[in-house]
Design goal:
- By secondary structure, the chain is mainly alpha-helical.
- 76% of the residues lie in helices and 0% in strands.
- It has a domain of 208 residues.
- It has 13 helices and no strands.
- α8 packs antiparallel against α12.
- It is globular, with a radius of gyration of 40 Å.
- The N and C termini lie far apart (166 Å).
- Its main location: Golgi.
- One of its GO terms (biological process) is vesicle-mediated transport.
- It is found in: Golgi apparatus membrane; Golgi apparatus, cis-Golgi network membrane.
- It holds the Pfam family Yip1.
Length: 312
């Protein structure tokens, strides 16, 4: 067995010689080195964490500084930066309103756009004007009627549709902001989100306008009523959660105004653009306007014939 002397730490001869030649030299133990290394590592980690936080803060400040103002072209360019897949998803959401699915929360997701609402309104304007002229052509009451296209319907459709899709959301947003200041239970969407909801809710009227060309009055009422129900459901399911926390009277009045304005748009569209009685009245107007010209031409012909007979 090893003795106690053998188990003691012994200094190497080279180390002893070095210490003898340089008495002022100091020795360092392994534990000292380990503790020193540990301190350096912790210090480096603190530096890395500090630099990482500074980098994140710098990036956030840079993003805030790079955000363009609403008076710049770049600000509005971001509102049209949307891909086709997102637009189609939002269109499908407006065509299939389901209970419990808020259009803003499930489809917009804090990224409203103006690309979809603008082109939906523009397409609807020309679709309604074109379909209305075709409907009037199919509703002609007699074979002597000469068709005259009514280009003024494009202007009227543009005023009605763009006015509804942009001014009504503005008024609703302002009202909800006012009610939000009066009652903490009322929530409100942003102005862009409100405009976006109204714009996409009108998409269902585009195929409806094409189908309403058929010369059947009852079919036109059914199609437009169905479109009004689908589009109105999108608005109701979206804005009811915002106003249900308000007083009962205020909530009912708000929802009633939303549905009433939507119904008035549909009713006006049916009576002005796709009504058979208006087409008949227009036919009578053109026919009666042509009668005096025919009588005048006949009278002129008779007078000319009488004069020529007298001279002969």
């Amino acid at each position: 067995m090893a003795s106690a002397e053998d188990l003691k730490f012994q200094e190497f001869e080279e180390a002893s010689e070095l210490l003898a030649s340089n008495p002022e030299a100091t020795t360092r133990s392994i534990s000292d080195g380990q503790s020193h290394v540990h301190v350096n590592m912790s210090f480096n980690r603190e530096e890395e964490e500090g630099s990482g936080e500074e980098t994140d803060q710098t990036e956030l400040l840079g993003k805030k500084q790079q955000q363009p103002g609403f008076w710049t072209f770049e600000y509005y360019q971001t509102l049209f930066d949307i891909d086709t897949k997102q637009v189609l998803n939002r269109i499908m959401g407006s065509l299939l309103p389901l209970p419990g699915k808020n259009f803003v929360r499930h489809h917009l997701r804090n990224t409203p756009d103006l690309y979809g609402p603008f082109w939906i309104c523009a397409t609807l304007v020309f679709t309604v004007a074109f379909s209305s002229n075709l409907h009037r052509l199919f509703q002609r009451s007699n074979s002597t009627f000469h068709y005259h296209p009514e280009f003024n319907k494009v202007t009227i459709a543009a005023i009605a549709i763009f006015g509804y899709a942009w001014l009504v959301p503005l008024g609703l947003w302002g009202f909800l902001q006012w009610r939000k200041g009066s009652s903490m239970a009322v929530s409100s969407y942003t102005l862009l989100e409100t405009i976006c909801v109204y714009g996409y809710s009108l998409f269902v009227y585009i195929p409806t306008a094409f189908l309403a060309v058929a010369p059947y009055e009852w079919l036109g009422w059914i199609l437009l009523s169905f479109a009004m129900i689908v589009s109105g459901s999108v608005l109701l399911l979206t804005f009811w959660p915002s106003v249900r926390g308000d007083t009962r009277l205020a909530a009912l009045l708000t929802v009633t105004c939303i549905i009433t304005l939507h119904a008035l748009l549909t009713l006006g569209c049916k009576l002005y653009f796709f009504s058979s009685w208006r087409s008949t009245a227009s036919d009578v107007h053109h026919t009666t306007a042509a009668v005096p010209q025919t009588v005048m031409m006949a009278h002129t012909t008779l007078v000319t014939h009488a004069v020529m007979t007298k001279h002969t």
